[in-house]
Amino acid sequence: MILLKTRRKSADRLSPFKDFQRRIQQKFTEMTYVYAYVNRFYTSRTAFRTERKHQMEKTRLQKIIAESGICSRRKAEELIKQGKVKVNGHPVRLGDGAYTKDIITIDGERIDRGRRNNKVYIMMNKPRGYVTTTSDEMDRRCVMDLLKGVPGRVYPVGRLDRNSEGLLLFTNDGNFANDIMHPGKHISKTYRVTVRPDINDEQLVRLSEGILIDGKKTLPASVIVLDHQQGRVVLQIVIREGRNRQVRKMCEAVGLEIARLRRTAVGPVKLGMLKPGAYRELTAEELKALRNAAQ
Question: Is the peptide bond before 197 cis (omega within 30 degrees of 0)?
Fold first, then answer.
C-alpha cells in the first residue's frame, strides 16, 4: 500500500509537466499550419504581382516578333520601318513596344504570341542561282523552295547573294539569329574564293588590313592563298563582320574579279561534304559551339 501511494504521488507530480509539454506540442503544430498558410498566401501574391507587373510593362516589338518565330530581329526592324507592323490597328515606329494583351499584325495578319514553336536549327549548302529570301517579287528561285518537310516556319540567318554558294543557316529562334548576325559578336565567316587573273603581295596586304567600302573601313581579315595557277588564284578569306556583299566588294576594290565564291564555315560550324541544295539539322555539338562563339 505504501509503495502504491508513492507511485501515485510521483505520477501526480509529473502530470503538470506532461500537460505543459502536450500544450507546447499542440501550439507548435498550430503554428506550423499557420506558417504554411501564410507562406502559401505570400508566394501566390508575389507571383501575381510579378505577372501583373510583366503585363503592365511594354516589350519591344522586334523582340516579340522574333520570339514568335516570324523572322529575325533585324528583319522585324525592317518590317517596322516599312510600316507593315501595326498594334491594335495603329501604325508603329521602331522602338515602340506592346503590352501582353495588345494585338500585333504584320501586313494585316495577326501574330500568335502564345505560340511556342519547337526550335529548329538547319544548315544548307546553298547552290548558285537562288536568292536568300522567303519570297521574291521578281519570281526568282528562293532558298525556301529547297526546304521541303521542315516542321514549322523558318527563315535564313544572314544571306548569300544569288551568285554565291555554300553554308547558310535557318532557324525559327529569333534570339539565336540575332546573336549570329549581330555585328558586335564578330562571328567569323570563312569563304573559299576563286579570283582572276592573278594576285600580288600588295593586294593580299590590302585585303588583310581592311578595305574602305561605302565610306567605312572593313575589319582586318585573314587571307590565305590555297592554290595558285596561271590565270586563277584560290583564296581562303575569313571575315568577322557581315556587311552586304562584303567579300565581293573587297576583291573588286583591289582589282580582282571573282569567278566563284563559296562560304565554307560560320564560326566553328563547317559545311563539310553536304551536297548543293541539301540541308540537315545542326547537331547538339554544333549548336553549342555556335552559342559559345556568340557569347
Answer: yes
pLDDT confidence of residue 47: 54
Sign of CA dihedral 230, 250, 184, 67: negative
The residue type found at 100 is T
Domains of the chain (ranges; CATH) run 59-110 (3.10.290.10), 121-182+276-293 (3.30.70.580), 188-266 (3.30.70.1560)
Compute the distance between CA of residue 161 and CA of residue 25 in angstroms, rounded to an integer. 78
Q: What positions carry a catalytic annotation? A: 161
* Residue 240: alpha-carbon gap to chain centroid: 18
Q: What is the pLDDT of residues 145-204, one digit of tens each?
A: 999 878 778 889 988 999 999 999 999 888 899 889 888 888 999 999 999 999 999 999
Q: What pLDDT score does 239 carry? A: 96
**What integer pLDDT is reported at residue 246 of this predicted model?**
94
Sort residue 16 into left (φ over 0), alpha (ψ -120 to 50) or beta.
alpha
pLDDT of residue 52: 52
Query: What gap in Å lies between CA 154 and CA 55, rounded to an integer?
Result: 28
Buried b (16+ CB within 10 A) or exposed e, 86-115: bbeeeebeeeeebeeeeebebeeeebebee
Amino acid (1-letter code) at residue 240? R
d(CA 37, CA 295): 44
Residue 138 is predicted with a pLDDT of 84
- Would residue 219 be called left, alpha or beta, if left means φ above 0 and alpha means ψ between -120 and 50 degrees? beta
pLDDT value of position 109: 83
Cα dist from 140 to 76, 131, 134, 157, 165, whole Å: 23, 7, 11, 19, 16
Please answer whether residues 196 and 234 qualify as being in contact, where contact means their C-beta atoms are separated by less than 8 angstroms. Answer: no
Residues of the chain falling short of pLDDT 50: 1-5, 14, 51, 53-55
